[in-house]
Amino acid sequence: MRMKGSVMYALLIVMAIITISCAEKPQKIANKSDVKDIIVKVNDYWQTNHKAEIRSFWDHAAYHTGNMAAYEITQKAEYKDYSLAWAQHNQWKGAKSDNKAEWKYKYGETDDYVLFGDWQICFQTYIDLYNLSEDKQEVMVARAKEVMEYKMSTTRNDYWWWADGLYMVMPVMTKLYKLTGNELYLTKLHEYFSYAKSIMYDEETGLFFRDARYVYPEHKSVNGLKDFWARGDGWVFAGLAKVLQDVPENWEHRAFFEDIYKKMAVTLKEAQQTEGYWTRSILDPNHAPGPETSGTAFFTFGYLWGINNGLLSENDYLPVVTKSWNYLSTTALNDNGMVGYIQPIGERAIPGQQVDENSTADFGVGAYLLAASEMYKYLD
């Protein structure tokens, strides 16, 4: 009896150890092949239903940043060819004016707004395509260099006056730095970002208001709270990840960008909804309640990039992406591959605006592909 009791006691100890060990292991998020299947399903649906030959403005260009991430994972030639057709259609340009005397940079959708960041995000994909090409034709990046070098030759530093612009243009600066070795790109990156931070940044939360018009307390949510637009901060969080991917480890301003990125991560973690998504007004869920995919996807990408590259603690932030990926791979994803719950083009969380499973848009699909591709890298 004593032997049986000892054996039973030992077995109980082993079972307890196994239980504790299993409890400490992070929950399995997804299967790698399943994530790849989702990338293909989503991107095939989009490209089957939308032609590549369309203008190079921000909404379409943001999709292509996700398409290039999808190509990196899948190596499907059709994806690269789709972006190539788009770039060629646009003559490897954003806004097309060649008269520098008329170039502008406040909001505008015509060809004279060459210096406006929404016309510059296309350069990210052009540079990626150039780096992937065998013959390295200069025409692929010539306009990007021309525009950004002209901008840097001016004395202005207020080019990035809205949160979205930080995703649109910051990675252009770092990609061109890597391409050319010209450190002026990094100097001006810090200068322009510092200006943007001075007019939009909230020191208490570490989040960014969409632009100077939305700074608290001049602007408030319907419940009197600070109103941070999810997609706006999504642009910033994802943009910071892309910057940190490309700048040198020993760059003098790297810690400055890292600290802002990490503080955003803390606040966003606390604001995530139980269902895994972030509401359109991040800190006031009742302002515009319900799921929203574009901001959630950008946050998911930003978190996963940080985990994958050792800047964010896996123990602290894996639960965040576990929940957000569950939302993205179920609620946000329709059976046919269409991504839903994407807030339409805008600049703020709008109370009463309908966003449902049929609400889709190219920029949101781009964000989704970024998140899914980074999830694949995590699982890999």
**Can you tell me the CATH architecture?**
Alpha/alpha barrel
Number of domains: 1
Low-pLDDT residue spans = 7-26
Q: How does the helix and strand content classify structurally?
A: mainly alpha
Largest sheet, in brief, is: none
The outline comes out as: globular
| Radius of gyration from CA coordinates | 22 Å
Summed up, the helix count is 13
- Following the backbone from N to C, one meets helices and strands in this order, namely HHHHHHHHHHHHH
Q: How would you state the average pLDDT, rounded?
A: 94
Q: Give me the CATH fold name.
A: Glycosyltransferase
Helix content: 55-70%
The N- to C-terminal Cα distance equals 50 Å
Instruction: Kindly provide the name of the CATH class.
Output: Mainly Alpha
In percent terms, what proportion of residues is strand?
Answer: under 5%
Number of DSSP strand runs: 0
What does this structure look like?
It is a single chain. The protein has 380 residues and is mainly α. It has a single domain, classed as Alpha/alpha barrel (Glycosyltransferase). The chain has helices at 2-24, 32-49, 58-74, 77-89, 122-132, 139-153, 164-180, 184-200, 230-246, 254-271, 293-308, 314-329, 362-379.
In short:
The chain has 380 residues and is an all-alpha fold. It has 13 helices and no strands. Helix 3 (58-74) packs parallel to helix 13 (362-379) and helix 5 packs parallel to helix 7.
